[in-house]
Give the backbone structure.
Amino acid sequence: MDYQLLFSRYTATPAHARWSRQRQLHECLRSAIRTGTLGSGARLPATRTLAQELGVSRNTVLYAYDQLATEGFVLPDRRGTVVADAAAAVPPPARNAAPLRVGLSKRALAVPTRDAPETPAAFAPGVPALKEFPVTLWRRLLDRAWRGLRTAQLNYAEPTGEAALREAIASHLRVARGALLDASQVIITDGTQSSLDLCARAFADAGDKVWIESPGYQGALAAFKAAQLKPMGMVVDSEGIAPTAADWQRHPPKLIYVTPSHQYPTGSVLSLERRMALIAQARSAAALIIEDDYDSEFRHDGPPLSCMQGLAADAPVLYLGTFSKTMFPALRIGFVVVPATLVAPLSLMLARTAPRGRAADQLALAEFMHSGQFSLHLRRMRRLYRQRRDALVAALEQQLGDVADVYGGSAGMHLALRLHNPHADDAAMSRALLAQGVVAPALSEQAIGTRVQPWRGFLLGYAQVPVEQMPGLVKKLANVVHQVR
């Protein structure tokens, strides 16, 4: 066996060239054994001999032999080192080997994929103006939080989250959203999707019905399908979700998912009359409302709207919030506000199933909120997003006003552009735009179930798009709409 040739061929591969000599030799010999180049019972050279032949240190060869022996590929004996018989029983996969006969479960395959790439490209929904976030200040707060950590805080944390952050969130919600709560009702999660997964697992059983707005948020649909619930799309009109008396009688839900302050994706606002009726009917049906308040901090027209959770004492509402939109997605911090009677059983469940950590991030965020910097950042972003909203609406009305209408621009970080033609192939238009680097998810693909005639048009996120770029991007959109039409 020409070990020098074997070794030189292996290390010539760019992927292997970056490895240390020890790892290169170990991987080279293991590969030769697994492919049969070094067969069962083959005797390896003495360590000194191989080191001299390859031009490496003897310690490098000793490391490779020891590692191979630990893994069971070689056996040391009085005369040296030989390839183990068992090594021949672990052949590498053949090039034409049959594919694995295992895969994802049926419930995993039933989970819908994301409705749009999460990228800073225009007009990807849900992406904030990341360049405007005060990164330097955030670094200082993180550094201060790490310096102040006690040794005990390096262990698994409280499953409900850091007390300081829960108190900061409760204080903010009482003032900004009109919520009725204390800090004990706040459960820290890893974001809205994590909150949805938690609600689906904790408050419903497999086979239970869950109502979702249609068109609606595909992430919620994914969470509920993954939990083996039965989602039902409920029609959305200009006043929000509109279940009928027959729906309550024939399809009583266990959970009701709504985005009342800025419906996703249409942008409609759930009227006060419907909010109160939904709370009363959910209470009668022993159902829980999941109120996703994902971007209500950015209200552009009129005063802020109060959340459903604060409309009635002990409302059957699970209130979801996230910092992915108000700060940045990589922070991965969200929260659920649960009714007081559910705090104890949910905390017990989390203690068994979800040990938490990331104390420094949570403490830094708590200081960011307590110091007033969070409110200051929100005010800045409201002004910026209003300017970008205005620029987008003006461009859309100028270039597409004859074929489409704008919906849902009064709040949030996105709006809906609904085409007049109810049969327009918005999915084909969306694909054509994506090929040009423009993300514009089709509204028809946000439909849930077949009970509702889908909207035709686009979901347009504007928070990350500078004002000066709006006319050119909308021109691309208009060109595609007119071409495909």
In short: The chain has three domains: 3-89, 108-120+132-371, 376-484. Residues 376-484 form a domain with the Aspartate Aminotransferase, domain 1 fold (CATH 3.90.1150.10).
